[in-house]
Write a structure and sequence with these properties.
The chain has eight helices and six strands, in the order αααβααββββαααβ. It is mainly alpha-helical. The strands form three sheets. Strands 1-2 form a two-stranded antiparallel sheet. It is globular, with a radius of gyration of 19 Å.
Length: 260
């Protein structure tokens, strides 16, 4: 239980390699266009709200495999049972940006083939791809293969309820909403390649440096506010004592489950 399995190494590698790859791509594209690229803005936004992962884990009773390296105990808001995995900050980039790119690809294909309206198509494509991605990552890679488990869920709203592999479907919906907005931001650009946030920033300041600063601030505020909004229902149900269904046996041998 102290040595990472090959699957855990793959999951950790995805977080670091995927996160750094998207960040590098965003920096390169920004350098080429001499303006912040939407991909880089999404990377900045994703890592900026990764601090909410720990309270999110606490609210949904997410418990990670003991072999996964953790943040030190002094890490702010380290509410994840057993400690926040150290791969979370870079992993948030890979986790949220990849489905946005896939959603954008699907959305553009649907727009080109059926001539559907761009805003609605991007939102629907982002939500569908985001939901499926979150389900595959959290329910299959996580709960089924043992990278992490959900100790408790809301009765009637989870798959495999009562087993250690149970998965709350409302988690996939929450993540899908976040990825839907990311897809929209990435794909809803004007002829100059500016997002709606960039356009607003340039209206507020003609100075290129200050408009870039405003764009970063705007995407950070938007991403954090949105993630906070999808996290709020989980927190409310946890505080109300509605997250009650789950196995009584230890999820990982020798590691106590998160208490109520």
């Amino acid at each position: 239980m102290t040595e990472p399995t090959p699957l855990l190494r793959v999951a950790i590698g995805f977080a670091y390699v995927g996160g750094l790859a998207f960040l590098a791509a965003g920096v390169y594209l920004s350098y080429r266009r001499r303006r912040l690229h939407p991909l880089l803005l999404l990377c900045i936004s994703a890592i900026s709200f990764s601090w909410i992962e720990a309270p999110y884990d606490w609210a949904v009773y997410a418990q990670f495999a003991p072999a996964i390296p953790r943040m030190p105990s002094w890490w702010p808001l380290n509410m994840t049972w057993g400690g926040l995995p150290s791969a979370v900050p870079p992993g948030y980039i890979a986790y949220f940006v990849l489905p946005a790119v896939l959603g954008l690809t699907l959305g553009r294909w649907l727009i080109g083939k059926f001539h559907w309206r761009r805003p609605q198509t991007l939102l629907v494509a982002g939500l569908v791809v985001g939901f499926v991605w979150a389900f595959l990552f959290n329910a299959i890679l996580g709960a089924r293969f043992g990278v992490f488990y959900y100790g408790r869920v809301i009765h009637g709203l989870a798959l495999w309820e009562g087993t250690k592999h149970q998965y709350p479907l409302y988690d996939a919906l929450a993540m899908g909403v976040q990825m839907m907005v990311f897809t929209y931001i990435l794909g809803r650009t004007d002829a100059a390649g500016r997002t709606v946030i960039d356009a607003a920033a340039e209206r507020m300041s003609a100075n290129r440096v200050w408009s870039a600063v405003l764009s970063v601030a705007g995407i950070v505020v938007l991403g954090t506010a949105l993630y906070g909004a999808v996290f709020a229902p989980h927190l409310v149900t946890k505080m109300q004592g509605r997250v009650t269904a789950g196995p009584t046996a230890q999820l990982f041998p020798g590691v106590p489950n998160q208490p109520k």
